[in-house]
Amino acid sequence: MREGRLSGRLIALGVTGSISAYKAVELLRLLTAEGADVVVMLSPSATRFVGPLSFAALSRHPVESDVLDLLPDGRIGHIVIADSADAIVVAPATAHWLAAMANGLSGDVVTAAALATSAPVVVAPAMDGDMWTHPATVSNVARLRDDFGYTVVAPESGPLASGQTGVGRLAELPAIVDAVVAAVGGRPIRQASAAARPPVVDAAPRDADLVGRRIVITAGGTREPIDPVRYIGNRSTGKMGVAVADAAIARGAAVTLIAAAVEVALPPEGHVVRVETAAGLREALRDAMPLADALVMAAAVADFTPMAPSDRKISRAGGGLTLELSPTPDLLAEIAALGAGSGDGPGTAAPILVGFAAETGGLERAPEKLRAKGIDLLVANDVSEAGSGFGTDTNRVTILDRGGTVDALPLMTKREVADRILDRVARALDARDAAAQTAGMHPDMQEGRPA
Ligand SMILES: Cc1cc2nc3c(=O)[nH]c(=O)nc-3n(C[C@H](O)[C@H](O)[C@H](O)COP(=O)(O)O)c2cc1C
Questions:
Q1: Residue ranges of the chain that CATH labels 3.40.50.10300
Q2: Is CATH 3.40.50.10300 the classification given to domain 214-440?
Q3: Measured in whole angstroms, how far is the alpha carbon of residue 215 from the centre of its chain?
Q4: pTM, whole model, 2 decimals?
Q5: Which of 13, 19, 137 should be mutated for ligand 1, with most atoms under 8 A from CB?
Q6: What one-character-per-residue DSSP string does 332-370 give?
Q7: Interval 125-184: pLDDT, tens
Q8: Does residue 106's CB lie within 6 angstroms of at least one atom of ligand 1?
Q9: 381 is an active site residue
Q10: Which of 118, 159, 165, 309 has its Cβ near the most Cβ atoms within 10 Å?
């Protein structure tokens, strides 16, 4: 997915009971292509024109269609949307919906969310030509635009469902997308926290495609001691690494999780090794890697460590304090340098190595990091971006591989990111095995050679 004009935004798409409701599926796709996370609301009439399934599958959020339904976690769906959406776009908006909205009648989820929000609202009406020119509709539209400050994307002229030709066709979808972009332009993202946003549809469960694979995963932040009570740490909570471990276990892998400081529950299955420092992590990796098929290095390892940690608490009485730091080794690059034959486990092929790069303010340096470390996959994210990085339940990452492929994924849960990474690891392991088998064959038996 390309970097879009709505990246990181939550857009609530309200669909009402018009013949053109089917176009809202394409509108959802266009908004998503602009990088938006989209949640869909249907009026009860809209559900007679279009079912929720396509919307839920494409948006990865459950569809809200009953204003009296609560979310599974007890929250009120239309209030969650009202409070977290960066904009609400109602397309198509029926004459009935415009009237209800103009009068504040919150009998359906779309009106209720629009009434409860402080986000900008974009409305794209669609109806029969006479309905559009009726004084009731004209004054309702004027009220929405002039009194409520809504953006109205006027319908266009053309053939209508009634068989007549006139003004009433839903505006072209790119014009509606542009209006949404303009409405949110310059405003800060309202709710980056996944917890405050609408729930997501669970990721499609993966097959047990990692059975028999031994995967080492590191998680959390290392702590480099200054003295017995103080340390240099980082903001990693371990959520991403633990999500990878959970996902790998669910897919049948034998997991060794090397956990530095983490703030989340560790998986009860899997072999957990606790470490504190970069040096401890290095030792644990040295023990675990000879048998590993793959390493996913999600831990945030300190780049520097105090050269001479004190074995007694440093007193303030001495005045100021200058710490001398030495760089820690690049653990992933070290393992990559061992290359093929580093393992005496299942085959002596080199393990598949996955690194993470937490950047701030863009990912320009990521391709060079992948090359310099000599690894197979690099998962890069901009931790300064809303919804990505430390402590969040979501992440928006770009996966780069040795072959130069760059896969920019949309904002998604860390569990889904974990599965996307493991999809690539599973494929790379299969390719590695196939290559090893081919290499072991008599040359005449190799693919492409005559027998
Ligand atoms: C086939 C069909 C097509 C319709 N298309 C429209 C339409 O394009 N615009 C409109 O305002 N009403 C249209 N209506 C009428 C609405 O569905 C009706 O007013 C309904 O109550 C709207 O409810 P809602 O605004 O809560 O979705 C249509 C009705 C039918 C049967």
A1: 214-440
A2: yes
A3: 23
A4: 0.58
A5: 19
A6: HHHHHHH-TT---SSSSSPPEEEEEEEESS--TTHHHHH
A7: 999 999 999 999 999 999 999 999 999 999 999 888 778 888 899 999 999 999 999 999
A8: no
A9: no
A10: 309
